[in-house]
Amino acid sequence: MTETAREPDGQIDVSGYSFEKAVAELESIVARLERGDVALDESIAIYERGEALKKHCEKLLTAAENRIEKIRLDRAGKPQGIEPLDAE
Question: What are the structural domain ranges in the chain?
Answer without folding.
Answer: 19-84
